[in-house]
Each structure stands twice: as structure tokens, then as C-alpha cells.
């Protein structure tokens, strides 16, 4: 193995170090993106918390089942295997980092369709000495996942980080994750998801995207509903743990469970989105509802129902314009607050483990501050722009603290507002196109220097003495042969001298 390592180092084009992994690349054909370090760090933080929880849950379940059998399974993590599939592995960097940095992993499969990529992964597995955990696979990602859809063959974690749209992998992925397992999905086709091409978004994700200031959150919610719809086809459903938009991509972490009854709740987690074409006001129209329906036999029974609509009138109540219709989007919470807090705590307790610890800390803190029950949002500059007003700073908008402003603004307007054009607003001079403004400054613009009437002879002779001083100096130094401007200046000074002598 030592022989192989040294050969690898000689041949490698470049070496990449990230986290505890070191990757040698022999060819430029294998894709490595350094900007995604944050994505990988975040995934490692999430998986570290997830695997610990997953093992504890499964152990508790196992213990419950074997209550009468005397066993010591309590602290034996080996009894709960944790397997990860990295379906589109490229360099293998992510798998190698998972193997070295996420505790309690039993096995990782690093798959890629490219033979070159698989060879690189294999070499790097040996280079990083993780052959006991990682296996390589040279296969079509979907085919590989379909081979693992049997409940006994499923993975605990599947990580999908494709270049572009992940939707073609979702059908196989949702079938191949264990119950309570985690699916990690990245999407980088932001133009499609953010409303530049709503029809393409529909063909790929089954939802219409809209151009709005909150398009990145909407992109997350479109991806989440897309994963859910794939899962529902197989009697499975998802629970989002963390969803973020960063740099040029979005990334979601969802748990996948089986349960046909829970699939009935899906429509109550989805909404269509009405967006006013005038003022961008957003109104959600839920696709379904789910309410308590207790009976004598079953007091905890719940029932699905159809909500009524539409949620908006024909015209917007704010600006009298019509609406666009987008969605469906995932309108239920996109994070699990408790889980996010645990991941944040993990990062804060181990900042040395992550190259991007500061950013992780910031992003996760912000996620925790989000309002979980208020999908989408508005941006002040757009709202103020619509009414042609200067934008207020965000903090000033919080008016409750300012009794004067809040009182003034709480009054009904007593002035009659007339927005028709006033005839006298366009004065005759302007209408006739008269020359109303001054000329633009020309060279030597300005009042000029003060007339030196009482200049004494001494001073004047000094001025004459200094004529061409620079020019002569430069000529001596061979810098400049001739300057017409200097002659011009000379003439001016002569003229001035003559005038003043008179
Ligand atoms: Zn409107």
C-alpha cells in the first residue's frame, strides 16, 4: 500500500485538503468545487447529530421489542448499522470526509457513472486509509438506488448532490431510504426554481415558480413539495429537518418515513401561491386541510377536508391589479427547530472541526430565528419602490417603539388624494422648450484670478524671470523638446504685463 501511495503522490496533478480528508487529483476531468466546502461542513454537522439520534431511536425501539430478554444492547452502537450512499460522488471527497468525520458510520457507498471518477475515488480511499468504511460503485445512480429499495437493503442516508436539477433521482431515492432515514438533496438550477422559467420548473419539479423577492425560499419549498410528491407515490412521507439557500444552490435535509395515513396530510402542507402583478402581495391557497374529527369509538380521529377558495378576489384589494398563480409549494415548516438547535450547538462546541465554522454558526443561528409558521416574506425596498417612496431602514419599520410615528400613521388619511396631472405642474418655459438651464462648464471655467492692479515692479520682474522656468529646466534634462502651451502662456504673461504697465 505504501508503494501505491507514493506512486499516487507523484502522478497527482493537484492535492486538495478539506476537513480531515486529502484528495489527489490526476485529471481535470473529475469535478471538484471548493466553494461547496460550506455545503460539506454543514452536511457533516447535520449527519453527526442525525446519526446519534437515529441510533438512540432505533436502540430504544429494539429495547422495547426485547423487553423480556435480558440484553446489554443499550450502549452498543454496532448493533445499529448506519449506511450512507453518496449517489454522485465525483472526487469522493464528501464520502471520505463522512468516513473520517462523522461518528458511528458502518458503511459508505461512493458511486459515480464515470469510470475515471471511480478510479480517482478508489485511489483516494486508499490514500486516506478508509477502505474499511467506503466501497466504490460504478453505476447509474438511479439503478443503484432501485437495487436497494427492498426494506432490508435500504440506506440510512442518501446524499444527492447533482450538477443542476435533482428531480430525476428522486423517484429512486425516496424508495431507498430507511424509515426515519435522512435524504440530503442539493439543487443548483436556481434560474428555473427562482421564476425565470416557470414552465421548465413545472416540467422538472411539478410546480410553477414565481419571480419574487423571496424566490430562494420559494425554491426550497418547491423542492420540498417535489420530494414529498415522489415519496407519497410509495406510501411514504417526508419531514424537513433543515433547508437552506446558500451561494448558488439550495440544500434540504428531510427525514423519510412510511405511512399511508400520514400521506393523507400532505395536501394540508401544500399551497398554491397568488402573487399580485401590481404590488407583489402574496396570498396562499392551501390544497387541503386536516382537522380533528373525534368519534365515540375513536376520540383521536382526524379527517381530511377540502378548503374553499379562491383565497383572493379577482383584483388585489391593495392595488386593484390581477394575480399570477404559482406553486404548489411546501407551506408547512421547512426546519425542525429542535434539530437545528442541536446542530448549532454541535458546531459551537466543535468549531475546530469545520473550516467554515463561523458561517455555519451564523446561518444556523439565523435559521433558528425564522418564523416557522410564516412562509415567504416581503422586502422593504420593493414595497417602498411601488409607492415611489424612499426606503426606510428595516429597524425603523418597527414602529411600536415610536409613539409619535405610530400615532401619526395610525390615523385615517383626511386629505383627498388626486393623482391626475396638474396643468400648472408643467410651466410654459418648459413646455415651449426654452433654454432654462445654464451651459455645462467649459475649460477654464470659473471667475479667473483677481486682477493684480497694484503689483509692484519687483513682483512683475519676478514673473517675467520665471517664465518658461519649468520648460527650460526640462529642456536641460532632455525631457521635452517643445510645448506650444508654454508659448501660449508666455504670450499671456507678456500681454498682462503690458496692460498693467499702462
Ligand atoms: Zn396588489
Automatic annotation (TrEMBL):
Its EC number is 2.1.1.216. One of its GO terms (molecular function) is tRNA binding. This is tRNA (guanine(26)-N(2))-dimethyltransferase. Residues 480-502 have a biased composition (Basic and acidic residues). The keyword Calcium does not apply. One of its GO terms (cellular component) is nucleus. Gene3D superfamilies: Vaccinia Virus protein VP39. Belongs to the class I-like SAM-binding methyltransferase superfamily. Trm1 family. It comes from Papilio machaon. Residues 458-502 are annotated as: Disordered. It catalyses: guanosine(26) in tRNA + 2 S-adenosyl-L-methionine = N(2)-dimethylguanosine(26) in tRNA + 2 S-adenosyl-L-homocysteine + 2 H(+). GO terms for biological process: tRNA N2-guanine methylation. Residues 467-479 have a biased composition (Basic residues). Pfam families: TRM (PF02005). Keywords: Methyltransferase, RNA-binding, S-adenosyl-L-methionine, Transferase, tRNA processing, tRNA-binding. The lineage of its organism: Eukaryota, Metazoa, Ecdysozoa, Arthropoda, Hexapoda.
